[in-house]
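I hope you will forgive my troubling you with a question about protein structure. The full record is reproduced below for your convenience:

——
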Amino acid sequence: MHLEYELLGNERGAERVEQILAFAGPGVDRSGIALDVGCGMGGSTRAMAKRFGRIVGIDVSFAHLIVARTRCREASLDNVALICATAEALPFADGTFELVNATDVVEHVPQQSAFLREGYRVLAAGGFFCFNSPNRYNIFGPEPHVNLWGVGFMPRRWMPAYVRRFKRMSYAGKRLLSYLELRRLLRGARGIQYRIHGTAIRRCSARRRWKHRLAFRWPWLVAVANRALKPFVPQYEVVVKKAR
């Protein structure tokens, strides 16, 4: 399932980059360097390379980086550098990047506070660090990694056994945050400016499902739902800005 998800990355990556730029707003300097943390097989990296002067992608999987390099070469992208590294210890100088993106990363890193600290450290003044965070207490759908309802409402020590019982899968290496846990993480990094957007229903290009049709027909209702149901939405979009 993960491989299939990655192989659909080109279309998904382009849509994701448009969302990131929309959340960050018009202040992003696209002439500078951007960083794609947890770039996987390069879906979002390729999309970012078409919008920024230079793009660096990092991932802990060397195999994924080989595929990403091949895809970038096939697309004739010569402004992309790929590096094997972890999100908690970025091998870059302070203030290097105008934009840092981390899609589907924070719930997988062992040290989430280090992930946030490093992403902020490498931001240039006036830059943006954007990442999504699946909600532990989502009431709109199953846990996205194992497609099982109710995982987040279990005590954390019971989650692996619960997933094994009903899905016969491992639940290692996953730590979804609730809204309060995410706010606590961000507030723990003193002095940063941040916004948390709840996304119960998101306007996107796919209109097949009822939620997407609703989002296009009544956007004001979507905005109300995203605010009123913020602790229980499927995921959060976090935008961190570094002051000039």
Observations:
- Residues 1-5 have pLDDT under 50 and may be disordered.
- Strands lie at 33-37, 54-59, 80-84, 97-102, 123-134, 193-199, 235-241.
- The first strand starts at residue 33 and ends at 37.
- The chain has two domains: 2-135+177-241, 136-173.
